[in-house]
């Protein structure tokens, strides 16, 4: 009961966080910005973790990792992130070019169900959409009259998952992550006259749901007496999301001009492939590298885009294949207790480079940055803390594009205790 109450209190403390939502201009297309952070021990490694195994922490980067958890223990983790973004470009108002946001991001649980079987359940973000901008509109039938279009969007998709992994021959772990994706996107378009008086507004509510499957493997062993290695891989097949779009057109007095629900369509998630490797020296120094690829160019989502009234505003947007490369280095400080090495703290650094699935005005949106992290395992309590800071640059400065320079600060709190055992505790 005490263990459960502790986890509930930790989760509640994050749910109570209040925030001003960040504006993410490039989330206007598709299902928004797809989350590439797991807010776990790999955050300070630029989320490099396909080949990462941990006996203490829950590594969602690869479902094959959970077989590494310690026997007789369960682990619960919650995480949150604070983001500060500055915007640059020809279309950015220099007096209003910054946003700040604090959000709860995850709650996950994991346990070693048997000697070779690790399992985990939890709730994580999958994508988010949040934007506000204006665009000029030439009024048909007039001579040079230009109205204003105000665009606003919010919402996102969440992921509820159950992941399992099993170890074979003490060198191979296979895993599967069964997830249910769900969420909604709210999109508003307001037509205003040259004096910014509202003429008509259109509201789209987009609901998306379906199951999603991730697969993973890790092959691991030793080279000599002091080197450990892990080779990891992940795979997710092309998966359709069920989409239902309801649309309402309103007068300025909120009276309904038009209302309709479009037939159920789909938004297709592409095939995703990832690979990684890690090398550890003397149980203390670890070097990691990851590569991920998503084949967006081979999926057709034109039906989803054309179902939205504002699809004509997407003429300069397109989807193409995306990829992400990251590397990380970790130094772990350990202390010998009863002939066992116990980790006390760890320090991390990472670098990443990615090409988004979004192409705007012929330019694929790129994201580049680095991270630093530190972790502390409490000596007197079952808690552990992971802090990381990330700085990155997304997009480009031009008359048509916007550049985001962002700083993210993440905190993950881990709680671990004995599970179904009366074993003694040593701190």
Number of helices: 2
Query: What does the largest sheet look like?
Result: 14 strands, antiparallel, barrel
| CATH class designation | Mainly Beta
* Order of adjacent strands in the largest pleated sheet: 2-3-4-6-7-8-9-13-14-16-17-18-19-20
> What is the number of E strands?
20
CATH T-level fold name: Porin
Write the CATH architecture name.
Beta Barrel
Unreliable sequence segments:
1-20, 423-427
Total domain modules: 1
- Give the CATH H-level superfamily: Outer membrane protein transport protein (OMPP1/FadL/TodX)
Q: What's the overall geometry?
A: elongated
N- to C-terminal separation?
A: 21 Å
Topology order in helix (H) and strand (E) letters: HEEEEEEEEEEEEEEHEEEEEE
The proportion of residues in beta strands is: over 45%
Average per-residue pLDDT, rounded, comes to 85
């Amino acid at each position: 009961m005490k263990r459960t109450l502790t986890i509930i209190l930790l989760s509640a403390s994050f749910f109570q966080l209040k925030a001003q939502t960040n504006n993410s201009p490039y989330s206007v297309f598709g299902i928004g910005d797809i989350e590439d952070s797991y807010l776990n021990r790999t955050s300070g490694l630029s989320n490099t973790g396909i080949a990462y195994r941990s006996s203490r922490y829950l590594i969602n980067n690869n479902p094959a990792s959970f077989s590494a958890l310690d026997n007789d223990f369960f682990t619960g983790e919650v995480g949150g992130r604070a983001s500060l973004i500055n915007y640059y470009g020809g279309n950015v108002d220099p007096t209003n070019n910054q946003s700040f946001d604090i959000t709860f991001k995850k709650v996950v649980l994991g346990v070693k169900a048997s000697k070779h079987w690790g399992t985990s359940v939890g709730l994580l973000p999958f994508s988010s959409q949040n934007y506000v901008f204006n665009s000029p509109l030439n009024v048909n039938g007039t001579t040079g009259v230009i109205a204003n279009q105000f665009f606003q969007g919010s919402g996102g998709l969440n992921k509820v998952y159950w992941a399992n992994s099993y170890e074979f021959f003490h060198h191979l772990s296979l895993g599967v992550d069964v997830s249910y994706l769900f969420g909604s996107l709210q999109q508003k378009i307001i037509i205003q006259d040259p004096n910014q008086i509202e003429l008509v507004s259109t509201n789209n509510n987009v609901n998306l749901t379906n199951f999603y499957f991730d697969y993973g493997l890790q092959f691991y062993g030793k080279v000599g007496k002091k080197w450990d290695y892990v080779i990891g891989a992940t795979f997710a097949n092309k998966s359709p999301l069920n989409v239902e779009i309801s649309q309402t057109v309103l007068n300025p007095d909120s009276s309904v001009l038009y209302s309709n629900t479009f037939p159920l369509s789909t938004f297709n998630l592409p095939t995703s492939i990832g690979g990684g490797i890690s090398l550890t020296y003397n149980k203390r120094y670890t070097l990691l590298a990851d590569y991920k690829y998503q084949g967006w160019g081979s999926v057709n989502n034109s039906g989803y885009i054309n179902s939205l009234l504002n699809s004509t505003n997407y003429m300069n947007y397109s989807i193409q294949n995306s990829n992400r490369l990251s590397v990380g280095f970790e130094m772990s400080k350990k202390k010998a207790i009863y002939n066992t090495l116990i980790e006390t703290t760890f320090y991390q650094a990472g670098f990443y480079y990615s090409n988004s699935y979004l192409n705007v005005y012929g330019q694929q949106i790129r994201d580049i940055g680095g991270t630093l992290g530190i972790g502390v395992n409490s000596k007197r309590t079952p808690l552990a803390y992971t802090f990381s800071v990330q700085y990155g640059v997304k997009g480009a400065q031009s008359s048509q594009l916007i550049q985001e320079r962002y700083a993210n600060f993440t905190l993950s709190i881990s709680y671990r205790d004995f599970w179904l055992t009366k074993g003694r505790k040593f701190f």
